[in-house]
Amino acid sequence: MVPVPSHSIVPERDLGKMPVLECQHLGIDFGGLTAVNEFNLTVGQTEIAGLIGPNGAGKTTVFNLLTKVYQPTRGTILLNGKDTHGMSIAQANRAGIARTFQNIRLFNNLSVEDNVKIGLHNQVRYPMWDGVFRLPKFWKQEKLAHESAMELLSIFDMQDLAGHEAGSLPYGAQRRLEIVRALATNPSLLLLDEPAAGMNPSETAELMENIVKIRDTFHIAIMLIEHDMNLVMGICEGICVLNFGQIIAKGTAEEIQANPKVIEAYLGSQKKEGSKG
Ligand SMILES: Nc1ncnc2c1ncn2[C@@H]1O[C@H](COP(=O)(O)OP(=O)(O)OP(=O)(O)O)[C@@H](O)[C@H]1O
User: Which SMART domains does the entry mention (predicted)?
Assistant: First the structure.
């Protein structure tokens, strides 16, 4: 039995299992600015978790700490129980963490399939010479990579787009492709940075269904940053609210929506913005 810390909000079905992520006293300073401090969070093995808060609260910085873009000034990150201290971005990815970005980062001139294959790359194994001389092992791996890429693209019904240039896809499809490429690295924790940004309500509704489908199909945890409260409150089981780099609340959608501190710092202004449009 794995003890779950008291600051945990993991769903019941994940209790007793090794959490996918445990952040303990995590923090980072940029010169005199403390961007994140005392960030303590546990994410369950199959949890969909949300990280919300006002602009500049430190959400993307948390993702950058988890993925090793930044090394923390203090604190610990355990990924599937393993301390990620000193890992590079690639090592953290191989250890099971993958992400998408607020601003789409695809290889625009490559095909959709090749973008997914880049994600698969950390699992393809053959000696260098097999690749250089196009030996049978290389072709076997290529065939497997093609099949895996098509299977992953089918999650979003994108198989027919495999040969298209990634940069030529409509915006919503590019966002979906980024998720597929991240999934191709076989993560146990998938981080999505504002996945619904720029999507219309029907695309967002479809995205919500797909996020749940990905969790159910791959049995992984998903943590997302999002300003679309319909999405967050609709699918996130545990929600963590950041303000000025500090966690001000953790809980279920109902608890967060009723929390006066969260309403004052964030949800109140979100509602006003929503009513403007
Ligand atoms: N590399 C850096 N150097 C200096 N300051 C930084 C750096 N990265 C982030 N910050 C600062 O850390 C704070 C948190 O920024 P961050 O981008 O994490 O916020 P956020 O919650 O993701 O905001 P948004 O919702 O607007 O994306 C901000 O004050 C930002 O200016």
Answer: AAA (SM00382)
Residues 172 and 263 in one domain: no
Q: What confidence tens digit (pLDDT) does each residue in 37-87 have?
A: 999 999 999 999 999 999 999 999 999 999 999 999 999 999 999 999 999
Q: Ligand 1: which of 60, 101, 248, 269 to mutate, most ligand atoms within 8 Å of CB?
A: 60
Residue minimizing CA distance to atom 2 of ligand 1: 30
Distance set, CA 92 to CA 30, 64, 66, 70, 173 (Å): 22, 11, 8, 12, 27
173 and 260 in a single domain? The answer is no
pLDDT band at 276, cuts 50/70/90? very low
Task: Return the residue matching tokens 């915006």.
Answer: 171
Residues 156 and 262 grouped into a single domain? no
> pTM, whole model, 2 decimals?
0.89
The parent domain of residue 12 ranges over: 1-96+190-277
* Amino acid letter, residue 72: P
